[in-house]
Amino acid sequence: MGAITGRRVLVTGGAGFLGEPVCRLLRERGAVEVVAPRSRDFDLTDPQSVDRLFSETAPETVVHLAAEVGGIGANQSNPGRFFYANMAMGLYVIEQSRRHGVGKVVQVGTVCSYPKHTPVPFREESVWDGYPEETNAPYGIAKKALLVMLQAYREQYGLSGIYLMPVNLYGPRDDFDLQTSHVIPALIRKCEEARLAGAEEVTCWGTGSASREFLYVDDCAEAIVLATERYDGADPVNVGAGSEIRVRELATSIARECGFEGRLTWDASRPDGQPRRCLDTSRAEREFGFRARTSLADGLRRTVAWYRAQAGMPLAV
Questions:
Q1: 75 pLDDT higher than 80
Q2: Is 314's pLDDT higher than 60?
């Protein structure tokens, strides 16, 4: 309680896809100042740089969103970098929060921390029941280690730190670079480019049999701000929509929304990633009153419209 109103809040990654709506909501909820440092000014993998950030901004609340992330391909290409960068950033941000007397730390983790074959729906108690899916394990394990760090710092130093595990996010301002993007922006871009080129087919990764749960970015921002205001427990909390869709069905929905009428083909030589993802979101609703409000259909419509506007693409007819 009281972690926002009248407080100086530091939001790492605050200029990013998720950070921008989080910062906007924090200001609306009464933060006296919201600091969103840029990577060109502060390298969060450098302990001296992080110390300087905290010394210059004197935050009372910290929301740690900064991460190096990407889709399956990016995780396969950068396992060492993804482990190091995410581990280092979290390590130094939490330690400097302790050293500088921060009142509350909100660590945003990832659904990638769950074991590969977690029973659906994923319950928070299952996060330690096995090894993550191989293609994103370095990223997921680095993030999960920060949960242990926060719990240890709570026990030894009395640091108020909470840990949230969002499911796959999507929405306007997402990463549409095909080398690094997740499945929704990648499929939107492929379908839009194919439509404009008059192409007869779009090739999708994997078999399409895996399932995913998707959360609209503004809904996730709302969950983070609610948790910052209302939650102060040591246990991790899932943040999601509580429903899943097969990737094959998702691709069909995106093609329809984009107006692409050609074939969708599947490249089974590419990995599917984790077989299923669907969260039990009851703890978030119980502890801080969060429930996702944006349907997948509405979210996809808004995301396609934003992408077209940014790319200057004509509408489908």
A1: no
A2: no
- Position 179, amino acid: Q
How far is 124 from 161, CA to CA, in rounded Å?
Answer: 17
* Average pLDDT of the segment spanning 62-85: 89
Q: Is residue 205 part of a domain?
A: no
Position 70 scores a pLDDT of: 75
Q: Which residues of 57-90 are buried (b: 16+ CB within 10 A; e: fewer)?
A: bebbbbbbbbbbbbbbbbbeebbeebbebbbbbb
Would 94 be classed as within a structural domain?
yes
Q: In the predicted model, what is the mean pLDDT of the chain?
A: 95
Q: In the predicted model, is pLDDT for residue 233 greater than 80?
A: yes
**Does a structural domain hold residue 302?**
no
pLDDT at 279 over 80: yes
The alpha carbon torsion through 95, 164, 120, 168 (nearest 10 deg) reads -100
Structural domain range at position 86: 8-170+215-239
Peptide bond into 121 cis (omega under 30): yes
Average pLDDT over residues 116-134: 96
Torsion of CA 70, 95, 99, 29, to 10 degrees: 40
Number of domains present in the structure of the chain: 1
Domain CATH code at residue 38: 3.40.50.720
CA distance 304 to 313: 10
* Residues involved in catalysis: 139
Domain annotation covers residue 2: no
Tens-place pLDDT, residues 32-52: 999 999 999 999 999 999 999
Instruction: Tell me the mean pLDDT in the region 259-275.
Output: 94
Angle at CA 217, nearest 5°, toward 244 and 71? 65
